[in-house]
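Whiteboard transcription, Tuesday session. T.W. wrote the structure tokens on the left side:
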């Protein structure tokens, strides 16, 4: 599909879709809670609906009311053995977190997904879940889906140190830990997203955070009868934040954006690079900090270095940050981001190759990239590699390219942001 919007600016106000991480967890924890859970502003993307479908197949009653959900939880031991294989599409969050829940059941289940998900490594969760007593089988010794999980009913305690900071691994162990009476803790080398800890607390579970270690306390029974309000997703907002910063004449107000400190690395980076961005109406909803972001055209962007503990706070935004860096003076260096190699695509390779195709000066590193700016982008043919974040990044690039950006597949955008193209066009009118 061709995209070319040079000469147009992004102007207006927008609430991007609700946060994917919070939406997933509201269904997962709500489904094993004891009581009714009302979820407001649930993200109806393919990924999150796969999580809903999975728990329905496990016997949970979930009612859809427009953009809201009503989950009738009957406790963490109420799940039933599924009749069929559970297909989780493209959702890495779903397969890894649900595996943690299934590890504590006393039945057999099989999890699979599309061709992209079946290439994503699962040994990172299989290893600790096996240590807790569950049977986890998969292709190549349990490394890749489909995964077969035979739960242990009651799991062993564990003090697990993750090799890399990963919210999905941490969450899988914590969710499995709900089915253990022994001590359960996860220690990371750097702090990853903490949505699971926050939501478990909202459901009344005892969770203690000490530095880089998260521990489960005595009470491990999620209680229902609560309302969860899902804020707007900063990862989705990031595309319009960057688009407004690099496109002359732009000013965009992005409403109700989640400002969890484990997710706001992109704000720190953009401010460091000289972007005109401010937070308005800061508040808290359902245990998560929220605010409105006002972003306008920023002609004097400068380069920066992104590495170390900052990486987990912006891992999903790196492709669009790389686009931002093409419009900054100097050499922007991104390191310590090898995790990008095992996302929906190899995001280091796909970002570098596509930026080069439209005229950027980019060097690929084993764990990141170097972007040299400021560069006039030309346009050209790019591939999304079936990756929603890559596709959206190059739609945004079309705002400043000399000729059209031709993207081979934009259908993949629906996994996280089904209305992206409609919202994009509404701001370029």
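and on the right, the sequence the group agreed on:
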């Amino acid at each position: 599909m061709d995209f070319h919007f040079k000469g147009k600016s992004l102007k207006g106000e927008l609430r991007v879709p609700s946060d994917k991480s919070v939406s997933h967890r509201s269904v997962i924890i709500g489904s094993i809670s004891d009581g009714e859970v009302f979820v407001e502003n649930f993200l109806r993307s393919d990924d999150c609906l796969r999580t809903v479908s999975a728990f329905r197949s496990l016997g949970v009653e979930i009612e859809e009311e427009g953009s809201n959900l009503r989950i009738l939880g009957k406790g963490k031991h109420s799940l039933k053995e599924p009749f069929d294989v559970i297909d989780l599409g493209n959702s890495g969050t779903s397969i890894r977190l649900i595996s943690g829940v299934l590890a504590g059941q006393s039945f057999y289940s099989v999890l699979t997904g599309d061709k992209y998900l079946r290439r994503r490594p699962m040994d990172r969760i299989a290893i600790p879940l096996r240590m807790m007593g569950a049977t986890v089988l998969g292709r190549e010794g349990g490394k890749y889906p489909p995964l077969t999980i035979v739960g242990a009913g009651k799991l062993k305690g564990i003090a697990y140190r993750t090799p890399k900071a990963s919210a999905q691994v941490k969450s899988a162990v914590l969710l499995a830990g709900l089915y253990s009476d022994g001590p359960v803790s996860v220690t990371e080398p750097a702090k990853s997203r903490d949505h699971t800890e926050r939501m478990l607390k909202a459901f009344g579970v005892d969770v203690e955070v000490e530095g880089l270690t998260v521990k489960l306390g005595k009470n491990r029974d999620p209680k229902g009868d609560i309302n969860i309000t899902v804020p707007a997703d900063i990862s989705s907002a990031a595309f319009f934040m960057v688009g407004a910063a690099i496109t002359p004449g732009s000013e965009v107000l992005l409403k109700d954006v989640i400002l969890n400190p484990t997710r706001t690395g992109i704000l720190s980076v953009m401010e460091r690079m000289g972007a005109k961005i401010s937070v308005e109406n800061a508040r808290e909803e359902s245990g998560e900090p929220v605010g409105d972001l006002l972003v306008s055209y920023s002609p004097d962007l400068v380069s920066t270095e992104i590495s170390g503990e900052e990486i987990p706070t912006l891992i999903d935004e790196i492709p669009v940050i790389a686009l931002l860096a093409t419009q900054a003076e100097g050499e922007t260096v991104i390191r310590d981001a090898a995790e990008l190699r095992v996302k929906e695509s190899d995001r280091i390779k796909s970002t570098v190759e596509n930026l080069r195709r439209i005229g950027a000066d980019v060097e690929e590193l084993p764990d990141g990239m170097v972007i040299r700016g400021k560069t006039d982008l030309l346009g050209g043919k790019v591939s999304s590699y079936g990756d929603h974040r890559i596709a959206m990044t190059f739609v945004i690039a079309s705002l400043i390219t000399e000729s059209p950006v031709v993207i081979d597949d934009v259908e993949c955008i629906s996994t996280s942001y089904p209305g992206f193209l409609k919202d994009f066009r509404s701001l370029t009118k």
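Someone added at the bottom: The first helix runs from residue 20 to 31.
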